[in-house]
Amino acid sequence: MTMATSPPPPCRKQQSMLLLMAFVVAAALSTAPSWAQSPPLQYNFYGTSCPQAEATVRNVTQGIISNDRTMGAAFMRLFFHDCFVRGCDASILIDPTSSNPQVEKKAIALRGYAEVNTIKAAVEAVCPGIVSCADILAFAARDAAVVSGSFSPFDMPSGRRDGTVSNFFDVLQNIPSPINKLPDLISNFAAKGLDVDDLVTLSGAHSFGKARCSECNGRLYPTVDPTMNTTYAAALKTVCPAPGTGGGDPVLNNNRVAADPNVLSNQYYGNLVTGQVLFVSDQQLTNSTYTAAKVANYSADAALWMQQFATALVKMGNIQVLTGTAGQVRKYCNVVNS
Q1: Rounded to the nearest 5 degrees, what angle is found at the Cα of 307, between the Cα atoms of 305 and 312?
Q2: Quick check: 64 pLDDT over 80?
Q3: Rounded Cα distance, 185 and 21, in Å
Q4: Residues with active-site annotation
Q5: Where is the binding site for heme b, in residues?
Q6: From residue 304, how far is each of 22, 78, 267, 308 by CA, in Å?
Q7: pLDDT tens-digit readout, 204-238
Q8: Cα–Cα distances in Å, from 167 out to 107, 172, 174?
Q9: Domain covering 53-174, topology
Q10: Model-level pTM?
Q11: How many Cβ atoms sit within 10 Å of the Cβ of residue 271?
Q12: Boundaries of CATH 1.10.520.10 in the chain?
């Protein structure tokens, strides 16, 4: 007589299930990008290896902005562009070479490269070979918010390492355009792990800095964008010539409403409400009920925006970071170590 086979004990079933789950997790990790497996950033990462690191960056950054108040926005924009292209790896700082002439910095005109090298040299003088250029960009952006926006000092985690690849075409594929519509902006930020709240919050950085007429001329010519304040548009047209008229491409302040265009503030949101912003991508933030409500809240509550901007800046600084043994710590920010 054949004996009936009894079912395995429950504990054996549970063991089988756990083994299957472990296999699935291991397979998922093996196919994840290398940055997803890297150790997380840490607060006070240089507390032992270079205790003077953050103070050195802060002191030099403050001095640079004190001498040229437009540099606060320049540091903030460098950090944004660096993080959005290949992750926060300082690839935006790499100079072209004969073997790689088409680097990121060739794709868009940014300022602050020499100043970042000055900060790096000061850090190297106290702690050679320890502090990455990627972390220097993060610290400088944080310190720019404090100096140019009167933010309370806030912590920025660190431990980033520097990338060794810089590609012109990565900029074109990753940086949001000033003519993007809201769904495209949301999608672009989502691809970097940032949500619609981060989009609205970080856009407040357009309260300072500079732009070119070519970035907003589409709202002025051949007819004025109906969402733009007519008085504001008329003033812009006195600065920005119609395309093809030989007037060049003048530089203008992002915030032409502010008494001081070099201050990082929530005035950007008041400008949005009154139709006095430069870019299509700016005005798009009023195009949904949800984003328009956030704009109104930030316009009315500077402290709320400042708190959430600091949080969003830290979150942005985590995009695809290289940590642990990935990448390198460059001796000079503009060249890869040999």
Answers
A1: 85
A2: yes
A3: 36
A4: 81
A5: 206
A6: 43, 25, 13, 6
A7: 999 999 999 999 999 999 999 999 999 999 999 99
A8: 9, 10, 11
A9: Peroxidase; domain 1 (1.10.520)
A10: 0.88
A11: 25
A12: 53-174
